[in-house]
Amino acid sequence: MSRARTFIVLGTLGLVVLGSLVGWTRYESRRWKRDDLPQLRALSSRLHLSDLALWTEARYTRHPSQADLFSAFQDSPGAPEHFPAGSIVSPSPVLTDPLSIVASGSGGRLRDAGSDGRRRAMPEERSPDVVAARGSSSGWAFTP
Amino acid sequence: MRRHLKILDFALASLQRRPFKNWAIIAVYAFTVAVVASVLFLTQSIRREAAQLFVGAPELTVQRMVGGRHVPIDIGVGETIAAFPSVVGVEPRFWGYTYDAVTESTITIMGAGPGMATIDLVEGRLPTRPTESAIGAGVAAMWGAEVGGEVILVDAATTGVLYEVVGTFESPSDILTNDLVVMTAEEAALFLGLPEGKATDLAVRVANDNEIDTIAAKVKRAFPDSRPITRSEVLRTYDAVFHWRSGMMLAVFSGGLIAFVILAWDKATGLSAEERREIGILKAVGWDTGDVLELKMWEGVVISSTSLILGLITAMVHVFVLGAPLLTPMLRGWSVLFPELHPTPHVDPYLLFAIGFLTVVPYVAATVAPSWKAAVTDPDEVVRG
């Protein structure tokens, strides 16, 4: 019976250590949310930061959310992926679920032939007021 | 209760008779659990951090696309977007990259628009004059620069430009600012060689979160060559990058899982002659099948629960205390300026139960199943082999 008791005591000790670590992570998580997160959000908001500064290998790994539709091999079609970070990102859903391209509504309708004889697919009709609003004067830091 | 304890005691004695083999199994099993749990803890922590951080990011970023590439956008476009209902403000962003040939690192240049110069997490202040800059911790460490010092950067015209360092970003912001050099917006535009009246992209503030997609659709309709990126798309990007099913993380994760399956399979495919003889003798001295199965279950529980607890403790210490030094080289890739990782400790109890269920149950089943076959066979046949 002594072996069984020793095992139960050691097992309980292990569970206590594990439980303490889980408790510590919850405490640290709350502390981060309370102390660091507001400052980090303010910094991200002030500098308009949109990506984590993790991979500085290429523009599409430094700013994956801002890249020209993130995909590997984009520096040179047909070339092997240059950067290790490129292999961390999962492939486009289109590759694993071809139906998603239909669901995303990437189609459009064909516009009548123009003067150049080409028929163009238009995503949607442009509203006249929006078209008129284009080309206004320049300047920056706009507010309504 | 006493009977169960006796059988547990017998199981421990039985395991002690083969100490090297069983400790080797515990070591491999615990290592496998630690690898799988480390990947899950790290990716979950970074994903969660990104999701919380970018709540402060612009609701909408508008880029201009030509030939499938992101090109500078007319600043005037912002005035039109600012007139859309629900848009609170539009600010052009001036950002880009510069390569430092000496350190072979790519640095991100970011222009800071008008606003408060002093801000938390910046030792010193943000630049207010064209000759000033604030730099990230990685850049500061690389050049040995500090507040009051100077840095030289090569601009778009390949001219070295000297900037006074008026601020450095503090360590908790490394994950956002490690490779940043912040300068005034006008200076950043000049440094990056952006044409007059152009910006890298436009940051759009939208008052009502429910209208972000509508505004994005309006921007796309008004400017068909634009690409509006919503904040939820930014969050989705990081969700995809650090999802356990993605790329290299999946490779590490599945490697660990396959190692575990091999371990369990080895147990499940049969008993050693010695183990079969042991079961036969137990049956011959009067143990019934239920007792033998309980003995084998306890053996499985002792090995798997010890390995699970050791593996989980190792993974937590590895990721949250030591900063995942074994996974960092895989994440780092070729990045010269990679921040020191301090993943915010966070463990989802659901994740712990999932890891426990996926490892303990199959292992115990793999231990009990072959024993059942031996336990229901005639003892004489089992002992004689």
Description:
The complex is a heterodimer of chains A (144) and B (385). Chain A is mainly α and 144 residues long. Among the domains of chain A are: 48 residues; 47 residues, no CATH class. Chain A contains five helices and two strands; from the N terminus they run H-H-H-H-E-E-H. Chain A has a two-stranded antiparallel ribbon. By secondary structure, chain B is of the alpha+beta class. Chain B folds into two domains: 195 residues, no CATH class; 171 residues, no CATH class. Chain B is built from 14 helices and 14 strands. In chain B, the strands form three sheets. In chain B, strands 5, 6, 7, 8, 9, 10 and 11 form a seven-stranded mixed sheet that branches. In chain B, strands 1, 2, 4, 13 and 14 form a five-stranded antiparallel sheet that branches. Chain B has a two-stranded antiparallel ribbon with strand order 3-12. In chain B, helix 1 crosses helix 11 and helix 2 runs antiparallel to helix 13. At the A-B interface, helix 1, helix 2 and helix 5 of A face helix 1, helix 2, strand 1, helix 3 and strand 4 of B.
